[in-house]
Amino acid sequence: MNILLLGSGGREHAFAWKIVQSDDCSHLYVAPGNAGTASIATNVPLGITDFEGIHDFILEKSIDLVVVGPEEPLVKGLVDYLHNQPKTAQTPIVGPSQLGATLEGSKDFSKRFMQRNHVPTAAYETFTADQLEAGLAYLETQKLPIVLKADGLAAGKGVLICLTLEEAKASLKEMLEDQKFGEASSKVVIEEFLTGIELSVFVATDGKSYKILPEAKDYKRIGEGDTGLNTGGMGAISPVVFADEAFMKKVEEKVVKPTIDGLAKEKIAYKGFLFIGLMNTDGEPYVIEYNVRMGDPETEAVLPRIESDFVTLLKGIATGTLDSYQLQISPNYATTVVMVSGGYPGSYQKGYTITLPESVSGAEIFHAGTALNENGELVNQGGRVLAITGMGENIDEALSNAFATVKGISWDQSYFRKDIGTDILKLMKK
Q1: 178, pLDDT greater than 90
Q2: PROSITE patterns from the entry (predicted)?
Q3: Domain of 291: which CATH number?
């Protein structure tokens, strides 16, 4: 198969790494890709929202399968666009319809979907700018802390946890009146704060059947001990010790099944990945959010644990034949440490030369914000630059392999969290 993968982050490098291992892949194109994907596939200078350009490229290269990595083209309707064009109407695509992608594109839409389909989630209300006074009054009736979420896409930064009523009121005004997150906060969801341990559950679905992929835990904040600003993700671990068999059975029965059934019942076309952000609250699962693609950096910890053919999985999703796929998961651990540019998630300098180790043992280096400069040198090009995934029979071995590899990588002002996995280790010793 000729396969086109859209995206340029660590998630897409991990996808590419897994795809090219399959005998079913004849040629992999990545648009636009990064320096890591360039070493194993053909990068294509196409924007992920250049729908016309993507359409023409599919025809030019006789693409047999399109895999959409990030959420933006899905929310903007890429799948609908391609399936409404006569020459790409039958092209298999891994990614939901625009309506399906609204599960991530609108927090209010996804919360209403959960309510209709009896999926456990936190209590909430939604407010717009002309309902600001009602929103402020609603805050006065709620317990603290309270969560404020921008309704639309905000690059993972549109969620605020407010500890005081004053902070909550000021933040609501900033979001609705001052458009703190732009158009994304034209609506704000005010949500009950859930306590517990957070994890990510990933589901592959062809709209009828589903496969639950390995779960993971990610680390969102920039500082050690989960302090400081939110980021796109500073690390991830899979499997998750607090997601035992009994808990995952509840997740399947109370969350996954009603979600997939709800999509079918409401005639929402969905052939793709569903990322379910969950809170384990005293052994009960509550959905924090849906995302309509794989997570990043969780993908870099999840895919190394999938032992069955990955392209067969992708083909099953896109062609409605997922029920016959036999998913095989390794019992081993995968731990991902993200290396970022100094200053991230704020401003940072680009163009520093990156030194990589000559050899790596027990780990994979996935590229995210990297590029090659005019001299062919590897340089940092984004905030999150590299994701290093260590593998091992236990979490200690996996972490050791990840951090040993991180120590062999350097560029000016690079930063990473040294405490990835320490919370899991503490839980395991209890």
Answers
A1: no
A2: ATP_GRASP
A3: 3.30.470.20
184-238: per-residue pLDDT in tens?
989 999 999 999 999 999 999 999 999 999 999 999 999 999 999 889 999 999 9
3-state secondary structure at position 152: coil
Please give the order of strands across the beta sheet that includes 124-128. Answer: 124-128, 187-192, 146-150, 159-162
The DSSP-derived string for 200-216 is EEEEEE-SS-EEEPPPB
**Count of domains observed in the chain:** 3
**Cα(316)–Cα(151) distance, integer angstroms:** 32
C-alpha 276, offset from chain centre: 10
For residue 264, the SS3 value is: helix
Asked if 110 and 187 count as a contact pair (C-beta separation under 8 A), the reply is no
Q: What are phi and psi of 418, to 5 degrees?
A: -90, -5
Q: Which residue matches tokens 């709209």?
A: 207
Residue labelled with tokens 């999985």: 313
Residue 115 lies in a domain: no
| pLDDT reported for residue 243 | 92
Question: Is residue 161 a part of any domain in this protein?
Answer: yes
- How buried is residue 253: exposed, middle or buried, by Cβ count under 10 Å (0-12/13-18/19+)? exposed
Is the pLDDT assigned to residue 157 strictly greater than 90? Answer: no
Q: Which residues lie below 8 Å from residue 13, measured CB to CB, with a gap of 6+? A: 34, 36, 37, 366, 367, 368, 387
Are both 188 and 336 inside the same structural domain? no
pLDDT bin (cut points 50, 70, 90) of residue 155 is confident
The model's pTM is: 0.95
Taking the C-alpha atoms of residue 175 and residue 146, their distance in angstroms, rounded to an integer, is 15
Domain of residue 217: give its range: 197-429
**What is the per-residue pLDDT for 429?**
80
Q: For 166-170, what is the mean pLDDT?
A: 96
